[in-house]
Amino acid sequence: MRASPDSDRDSSNDVAKRMGWSYKKDTARRAYIELLREQVGGLDSLPPDRRESVLYAELIAADYLSGVTRRDQDGFPSGNIIQGITVMGRLFLQELEERERQRSSLGRAKKYGLIAFGFAMGIISHVLPDLIKTLLVHK
Description:
Layout lengths: L5 H14 L8 H17 L3 H14 L3 E7 L5 E9 L1 H17 L1 H33 L2
Antiparallel strand pairs: 1-2
């Protein structure tokens, strides 16, 4: 069983308060995030074949794949029989692929390019009327 990180976090928050630094307030949401990140970290540290077995078991349990999961004496997935992908699985796959596209370098470039274009157009929209007036007056 691991030691609770609350004592360490409380002392660092107290130090931050005394030093006048900002600190993040402990909330249930932050606790959930920390607990889930620990689980993901544990999953990522598994050997590749064991990790794959756990991931398949999760996909089966979430009804993204149809199949059966075999478990060892400790209750961990030890093998899976995959029968196929479900409709929910195909939709989940499309969602994940879309997220990957959005996070790709091209997706980010498009996103930030649009922001920069909008910023430039905002500046031009304020300068353009004065420029047109100046050009028309000098003719």
